[in-house]
Amino acid sequence: MAKNLKRYYQAWELRQQGKTYKKIGEIMGFSKSWAGTMVSFINFKIKYQKQRRISGELKELVKKYPNI
């Protein structure tokens, strides 16, 4: 998997743990708006997973957080 996509997954997982976008940005070294963009991208991929194929890693994260 691309290194960049792993960072998107990491930001998404931090959000699922209840971290704010500001805190995610601080942890990962970028702005809160970029953290929100990354999380939104993964949420989009999850929402449309039935229409498109998604990676095994994302499927595992979805299983870990079933309430999204």
UniProtKB/TrEMBL annotation:
The lineage of its organism: Bacteria, Candidatus Roizmaniibacteriota. This is Uncharacterized protein.
